[in-house]
Amino acid sequence: MTFVIALPCVDVKDKACIDECPLDCIYEGERMLYIQPDECIDCGACEPVCPVEAIFFEDDTPQDWQHFNTVNAEFFSDLGAPGSSTKLGPIERDHPIVAALPTLGAVPPVLAIPPNA
Ligand code: F3S
Ligand code: F3S
How far is the CA of 68 from the centre of ligand 1 (A)? Predict the structure, then answer.
């Protein structure tokens, strides 16, 4: 079993979770962070510190976000278990499902034009 990071992390990346993880198994992608499921020891230390409540025990992931259980695992398909997110550093890509998400909180261009401009 593992903890997973879900949608609220996207484009937020607070990173408070990283400091709490004793296994250094929370990895940084472009738009969100991902937990390596084989390295996570289910200690739960990361879950309460996330300010946007993005972290869940995988059995408790809300229904709408359950695909993030797979998203976290599949992010490591080609990386395997790197052993340390600090050593590996940021990874300049995301899971395809995350990469395809619209930018959350983006202002539509038409609304970004000031009145009388
Ligand atoms: Fe993301 Fe929350 Fe960690 S926003 S980076 S899961 S503290
Ligand atoms: Fe790390 Fe424990 Fe979370 S091992 S990913 S802090 S559950």
Answer: 14
